Amino acid sequence: MGSDRALGSACHGAGRSIPRGAASRGSEAELDAFLREFRVVTPLNPRDPAVAGRREVIEAWRRDLKQEAPWAYKDVFPVVESLRSAEVAQPVAELRPVLTVNGRGARTAPPGG
Does the keyword Hydrolase apply (predicted)? Predict the structure, then answer.
């Protein structure tokens, strides 16, 4: 909304709720549920027979996925509400991720997406 108090800007997310290290040690069941819901595309194909038999490679891949999984981040809705009530920003749309790209190359998309 161009607020001088906010230097004409607003935050772009809520931030992490769990540090990367702690997230990487998270629940295997939670990761499995996430993988059932989302199609994950990375430079490493865990279904490739040359990779699938490499336990240490698969474990490292799963650990990396946990670091960026949705449960590692705070809920954005309280942040949006605080920005709205402070007249810093006005919500105009709710977006849901279809694709996420991070510096390590992991991407997620809903099945069929």
Answer: no
Domain range for 101: 4-109
Contact (CB, 8 A) for 66 and 32: no
Structural domain count, the chain: 1
Nearest CA among 75, 51, 60, 55 for reference residue 24:
60
Query: What percentage of the chain carries pLDDT values higher than 70?
Result: 85
Q: What pLDDT, on the 0 to 100 scale, is given for residue 105?
A: 46
